[in-house]
Design brief:
Strand content: 25-35%
Largest sheet: 9 strands, mixed
Helix content: 10-25%
Distance between the termini: 88 Å
Number of strands: 60
Length: 1293
């Protein structure tokens, strides 16, 4: 290594560099050498080198096509992977990784080695180099041996343009201009926008080896052929050019031969020149050319092939032909970048247990083994067939478009308002450069959590909730929710709740109450005669969750009952009228308080004593309101349950008030079920703690958790109080406000003091939603990572609250090391949180409510499932995942904030045992009189035969059910802009209008009349009666004019619920949709659905009308639908199914049904009677149906005797068809096939009624039940048909 020569006059040429250490002070030395050593694999030459501009990494490309990265400062191997099959010529870095270029391929890898782009084309041959041409680094200019420059778009993975040039290119650089070094020795300067050649220099006679640029200087090295030389040699002269004058400057001489060039990143004209033999010269490209430093790299005789310098100028890297990287530095603590990002490392996963689930979000798919196969895997999808789609351009405001003025290619206009400089609105799709939310200056609603503006300059990334917390939208198809895979989001045995309703924020509160054993047992045993009773509806819903075993449940009946209560109107209007302005946090808190009060009132309904209700959500001085609820006079006796809400949540306060004018005072007791947390002011913190220390109740003084307190206080200096301080301020606080004064006889300002009298068994706390308190909560985490929760949760898992006359109220955060069975200890059992997801396109979908619940072991015992280590679960509607207490207590102010906290005493089971569950629904519900009483005139003939005590259905008895519905709200649809398909935005809302139940009889051929045939009164406006498919006409559901037996939804539900609990077998056609709209769950072993029994896999489903025509020889639904008729037909089909299976003819019969249907376009048998000839291929099918005539005749006769039916016998059709089959003409005779276009009038009476709507409906492919018919009819009621199909709607599969 040569001694460095002194550098003279550096500051004279570069006065702005006087503060930097001079090159003379730099002692360059080799600190280490690294290589890619592998067992049994020879080393490959280093073809290219690159220091990562963002992280402490060194990229190396080998001639074998392998890429190896080393991490500084120790330069241990970070990643290594095979990128290409040939030599790698250049590596181009970007934000996520680097692009590697070989002769015929361009690929992009992450820093860990994952490939996410690979592109090759006939246009890309003999590639050598490339460079980013735009600031976003989305386009690369590729060059090589071909006389063409290709602009490659990385995001779209394609070549967007080609630029012809004079010769091939060996290297390309970009600064103010794009410089290309050609094979012919010319240096070309290109415009960076148009890629047009602006100027050329003749540099080297036999080609250019390397080019580097900095500022206005360009240097080149190349090949030249001297006089007397047979072959070109490395030119010993470095050419220097000035881009300002476009003239050459004085060249630099380098006798060993200039091979590689690189400007120093910290000095303007300092240049490193490297030869193939390891000579290194550091000199000035402009200025005193005699001042230089010369070094020698010990490469062991191997040629140097690559060279690079780090961004700080502190590290040099040389790659030689032996595969060794030589690292030089001028100091011991040399860095690659001045401000490097943290480098990611692969996660370390524990071995999976034997019972892990493959599709669990917490389990990486890479840990699962793939069975051996010779077929190509789906992961082998070619990378050239993949591309990244750019973010769509946001739409321009219509107000701005209306005022735009055009000037050439530029349009301008006044700001319509709401658009701010350097800010992106939260209502549009936010870019990734969004951050902290701030209030709009012109937003009058300061409590709105939806209208947010993100300061682009505040944060560069936007925190988003993890997948288990995000709202899952149910994708609807033409079959509704039947095709949606709910099981993917719920791998537990707990039932989830659907979020299709407008007020689904109530789901989390319902799930919170369900997992409270005392509340659940109380509501499951509750039953009263009130039509709209929330406790009854919650009991029905809890029963469905009990038997669901992971199946999703619907809360439609509960929400419909809740909406009928006048006190709940405000809670629904805010969510239904304008969901974007609805603040879900205070709405949820009001819902909890109202629901607990209502449950307490319902539990005392059997008593004539007035029930005192809580005065408000938080302790106030206003007088408590009372409500009297006398016992009902209905035959369904009200079952008195224990008033568990008051015993569980009852929280009594002393409220002492003093008038500040007349000094009159008074004391009252206030009962509350929920308590608002009161954050103490900063001024009151010293007094609170001084009082606690004096009383010996400060946290940590009696075995608390001082370590956690010190950690939080050291971490968050802006709010120096703990959760215990908040509880002390909540349970004992003072404030001033106006109230009525009896002495002054007017409203005066009072001083109020609240003191806790008695502690509840369950402490329900409402987190303050005031803007100042929310900002205070966010400031707790101002120094924390925006993605990761803090290490020490601010909320405690256990707290101890005691009260005594001498010591007052003591609150301390209970240490986990202490005995949890100590008295007055509360443990967190449920926590409701508000989630904000900025990734949602529609602003009203960005907020929702989730709930963490600690599941009691009795729930696992009831389901027979093993307990989890923590028994904590996250309930996000129907998305249920296993969780932990630390996850529940961790918050991120950018997407997760607490709403309701529930702490339960650890000794609650000893203080208040859980009551035994008693099913209140008995057979008395089948014999109770009409709840509507005198309101129903019921002047028409009775369409059902009431049961007697002797023939009540028992376990195993078969009953047939069918229901009819009316539409309360039409579905909202839209056309997808990409494929033009119809997308359901909001599903249609149906209400039960009629339900009929028929019981099977042991006597063959006899089908009894219905023992339940109830019309259901509807209190909500009806959008469409769907008379063509439901048989319901205006007036049928009005008790004052309806001639039918009309009753309440609750009364009909109780009858069906008793049949389910009794173990009856339900038979019907399309029962899944019937049960869904009735809002009841029937165990699968109690369901016999004929739409599934008469169905071939992967084939269309057969309608009830089609099956009855061919199998029962009857025509049903001739003019309209009738639930008793449909139920009887389904029961007859099930009876025939049993006989066919017993005789071994069912499979042949089903095949014949599909064969005839496909041939004759699914027409009914009665529509084929006028044809003179059948297709000869159907001979076996007709013979089979003829043999079934004797069996189906008895069933058809039984159906025809039903009162008020629309059944028409067509048994003679079988003989006509059979005769046509046996008397068919010879093959030479023309054959008339039944189907579209047949002669004669084959339309049924129903076709003239439906008209064009019927033929439009027949274009659908599947029809499972009457509700599908109603949906399609409602959707297409205003459309015109293009053709007419002579058949009824029920012939559709």
């Amino acid at each position: 290594m040569g001694a460095p020569a002194p550098v003279v006059g550096m500051d004279a040429y570069h006065p702005h560099l006087s503060a930097l250490p001079s090159l003379e002070a730099r002692g360059w030395h080799q600190m280490r050498s690294v290589t890619d050593r592998r067992m049994g694999v020879p080393l490959s030459p280093i073809s290219c080198l690159l220091f990562d501009p963002l992280e402490e990494l060194l990229w190396t490309g080998l001639e074998s096509g392998r890429v190896v990265t080393y991490m500084g400062p120790s330069y241990e191997k970070y990643s290594a992977f095979q990128a290409h099959t040939g030599p790698i010529h250049q590596i181009i870095p970007d934000k996520t990784g680097a692009v590697s270029i070989s002769s015929e391929c361009v690929r992009h890898h992450t820093r860990g080695g994952l490939v996410d782009l690979s592109f090759s084309s006939d246009k890309l041959r003999d590639l050598r180099c490339g460079v980013h041409v735009n600031q976003a680094k989305t386009e690369i200019l590729l060059a090589g041996g071909l006389p063409t420059l290709s602009v490659f778009d990385v995001t779209r993975s394609r070549i967007v343009s080609e630029v012809p040039i004079s010769s091939g290119v060996t290297c390309v650089r970009r600064s103010r201009m794009i410089c290309t070094g050609g094979i012919n020795g010319q240096l070309s300067l290109l415009d960076p926008r148009t890629f047009r050649t602006e100027h050329t220099f003749d540099c080297h006679s036999c080609g250019i080896i390397d080019v580097d640029m900095k500022g206005d200087l360009v240097v080149t090295s190349g090949w030249s052929k001297r006089t007397g030389q047979m072959y070109p040699a490395v030119d010993p002269i470095v050419k220097v050019y000035d881009l300002r004058t476009l003239r050459p400057l004085s060249p630099l001489t380098f006798p060993p031969g200039a091979f590689l060039l690189k400007f120093h990143p910290k000095f303007s004209s300092s240049l490193f020149v490297v030869s193939q033999h390891g000579h290194l010269q550091l000199c000035e490209a402009q200025g005193d050319l005699n001042n230089m430093q010369v070094y020698q790299v010990d490469c062991g005789g191997e040629p140097l092939l690559s060279f690079d310098i780090s961004g700080t100028g502190e590290v040099l890297a040389f790659g030689d032909g032996a595969g060794v990287v030589h690292l030089w530095a001028d100091r011991e603590d040399a860095q690659i970048n001045q401000f490097s990002q943290s480098t990611d490392f692969p996660g370390i996963y524990r071995p999976l247990s034997s019972n892990y689930k493959l599709y669990d979000d917490q389990v990486p798919l890479s840990l699962s083994t793939v069975p051996p196969t010779e077929e190509p895997l789906f992961s082998a999808w070619p990378l050239n067939a993949q591309c990244k789609l750019p973010r769509p351009v946001p739409p321009i405001d219509n107000k701005l478009l209306a005022t735009l003025k055009n000037t050439g290619r530029i349009s301008y206009g006044p700001n319509p308002g709401g658009v701010y400089k350097n800010q992106a609105s939260g209502d549009a799709e936010d870019s990734e450069n969004a951050g902290q939310s701030v209030n709009r200056s012109n937003n009058t609603n300061s409590n709105s959590s939806h209208h947010r503006v993100y300061d682009v300059t505040a944060y560069r990334t936007l925190a988003v909730p993890p997948k288990p917390y995000r709202r899952v939208e149910i994708k609807l198809s033409k079959l509704g929710v039947q095709e949606f895979n709910f099981g993917y989001y719920n791998h537990t045995h707990f039932g989830g709740l659907e979020n299709l309703q407008a007020n689904c924020y109530t789901n989390s509160i319902v799930q919170m109450l369900y997992f409270m054993p005392h509340i659940r047992a109380n509501l499951l045993s509750h039953l009263c005669g009130e039509e709209f009773c929330l406790s009854c509806e919650l009991g029905f819903l809890f029963h469905m969750l009990d038997i669901s075993r992971g199946i999703n449940c619907n809360t439609s009946n509960f929400l419909r009952c809740f909406k009928q209560l006048p006190q709940a109107a405000s809670m629904f209007e805010a969510a239904e009228i304008n969901p974007e302005r609805c603040d879900l946090a205070p709405l949820t808190q009001r819902f909890v308080a109202f629901l607990l009060s209502r449950i307490q009132q319902d539990s005392l309904r059997a008593s004539p004593v007035p029930v005192p209700l809580p005065s408000s959500i938080s302790p106030t001085l206003s007088s408590a309101t009372t409500a009297a609820s006398s016992a009902t006079t209905h035959t369904i006796h009200s079952i008195r349950t224990e008033p568990s809400v008051e015993k569980l949540f009852g929280n009594t306060f002393y409220a002492r008030g003093r008038c500040l004018v007349c000094n009159a005072s008074g004391v009252r007791e206030i009962l509350t079920y929920t308590t608002d947390l009161n954050f103490p002011s900063k001024e009151s913190i010293p007094a609170l703690r001084a009082r606690a220390e004096a009383l010996g109740g400060l946290m940590g003084s009696e075995g608390g958790n001082p370590t956690a307190t010190a950690t939080i206080n050291d971490m968050h200096h802006s709010i120096p109080f703990t959760f215990a301080d908040v509880m002390r301020s909540t349970l004992s606080h003072e404030h001033k406000g106006n109230s009525w004064c009896e002495r002054c006889q007017r409203s005066q300002q009072h001083s109020f003091a609240f003191e806790l009298k008695s502690l509840p068994n369950v402490l329900c706390l409402n987190w303050s939603c005031k803007p100042e308190d929310v900002d205070m909560w966010k400031s707790l985490f101002k120094n924390e990572s925006r993605q990761a929760p803090p290490q020490a949760p601010w909320l405690p898992y256990r707290i101890r609250i005691t009260r005594s006359e001498q010591r007052g109220i003591e609150v301390e955060e209970f240490s986990e090391s202490e005995n949890p069975n100590s008295p007055y200890v509360y443990e967190l059992s449920s926590l409701v949180s508000h989630i904000y997801n900025p990734l949602e396109n529609q602003s009203f979908k960005r907020t929702h409510i989730v709930c963490h619940n600690r599941v009691h072991p009795t729930y696992h015992q009831k389901l027979g499932t093993p307990e989890t280590p923590s028994n904590w679960y996250l309930f996000n509607d129907f998305h249920i995942t296993s969780s932990s207490a630390s996850d529940a207590l961790s918050f991120n102010p950018h997407w997760k904030l607490p709403v309701v906290l529930v702490y339960t005493r650890v000794d609650i089971e000893d203080r208040l045992p859980v009551s035994r569950e008693v099913c209140p629904i008995t057979e008395e519900v089948l014999f109770s009189p009409n709840p509507l009483g005198s309101l129903s005139i019921n002047s028409g003939p009775q369409s059902f035969s009431p049961l007697t005590r002797e023939n009540v259905p028992r376990k195993g008895d078969i009953v047939a059910l069918d229901a009819e519905f009316v539409s309360l709200q039409a579905e909202e649809t839209n056309l997808d802009q990409t494929d033009g398909k119809r997308v359901i935005i909001k599903p249609a809302v149906f209400s039960l209008a009629r339900v009929s139940v028929i019981r099977d009889t042991p006597t063959q051929g006899q089908i009894q009349t219905a023992f339940i045939d109830d019309y259901i009164v509807t209190h909500e406006p009806i959008a469409a009666y769907l008379t063509q498919f439901s048989g319901i006409v205006p007036g049928d559901l009005d008790p004052s004019v309806s001639p039918h037996h009309i009753t309440t939804l609750k009364s009909a539900y109780l009858k069906l619920r008793y049949l389910v609990d009794a173990g009856c077998i339900f038979v019907g056609h399309g029962l899944q949709k019937d049960f869904r709209i009735i809002n009841i769950i029937v165990p699968p072993e109690q369901v016999r659905d004929t739409v599934e029994l008469y169905h071939l896999e992967r084939q269309r489903k057969l309608s009830l009308k089609y099956l009855a025509s061919y199998l029962l020889n009857i025509d049903i639904q001739a003019e309209t639908h009738c639930s008793t008729e449909d139920a009887a037909a389904a029961l007859a089909l099930y009876t025939l199914y049993q006989k066919l299976v017993e005789a071994g003819k069912f499979d042949d019969t089903l095949q014949a049904l599909y064969r005839i249907g496909r041939t004759h376009n699914w027409q009914l048998k009665s529509q084929c009677m006028d044809a003179s000839m059948l297709n000869p291929s159907l001979a076996s099918s007709i013979d089979l149906f003829s043999s079934l005539e004797a069996v189906s005749s008895e069933l058809g006769e039984g159906l025809a005797r039903l009162p008020g039916n629309n059944i028409h016998r067509n048994s003679h059709n079988v003989h006509n068809i059979h005769n046509h089959h046996h008397n068919r003409p010879s093959p030479s005779t023309s054959v008339v096939l039944l189907g579209l276009g047949d002669g004669g009038d084959t339309s049924s009476p129903r076709d003239s009624l439906l008209g064009d709507d019927s033929s439009r409906l027949h274009s659908q492919e599947e029809d499972e039940d009457d509700v599908d018919e109603s949906e399609e009819a409602l959707l297409h009621s205003q459309e015109e048909s293009a053709e007419s199909i002579p058949s009824s709607h029920d012939d559709i599969a």
